[in-house]
Specification:
Elements lengths: L4 E4 L5 H6 L4 E4 L17 E3 L17 E3 L17 E3 L17 E3 L17 E3 L17 E3 L17 E3 L1 E2 L18 E2 L20
Parallel strand pairs: 1-2, 2-3, 3-4, 4-5, 5-6, 6-7, 7-8, 8-9, 10-11
Length: 210
Amino acid sequence: MQAMTVVEGGVLGRAEVMALVGPAVLRGCDLEGADLAGVDLSGWRFERCSLKAVNFIGAVLEGVAFVGCRAGFARFAAARLGEAVLQGCDFNNAGFEGAVLTGARIEGCKLTGADLAKAGTLGLVLVDTLLADARLRGVVLRRAMLEGVDFSGADLAGCDFREAVFERCSLREAHVSGARFEGADLRGADLGGLKIADAGKFRGAVVSRK
């Protein structure tokens, strides 16, 4: 098996990335504002990189690993992130609209204000992740195991949480219009601040009031 190309530090734009023999490992690199729309970066690994406002729209990011990266305002709309790993990263206000996150794992990340509307989330794993004030309209997390996920103030309209299990999660003041929770286990979720009118949304769910 051929060794992966490793780049330590430096400022990289589209031309520099395209010139690399991939998949590659980028460590401590600065790609801020780079235009990587539509680029195939399958299997690449980004460690402690600055990815602020990078354009990944329509990029192929299958099996990519983002570890300890700063990626606020990055754009991943319609990108393919199947089996990707996002760990310990800052994705605040990033856009994942319509992205495919099938089988991906997001752990220890900050996605405050991020937009995941209509993202493909079959098999998505969410652990210890901040999604406060994020937009997840229409996202399907049916049968998902959600651990330590903070959805405080998030827009969860039309989401499918049927049979999902919430452990150490918060739905405080989230917007749940049209969301489905039948069969969900909400005993490990903070439901504070939800309106009485929202009570019907949790019919059929397992809820424990503390």
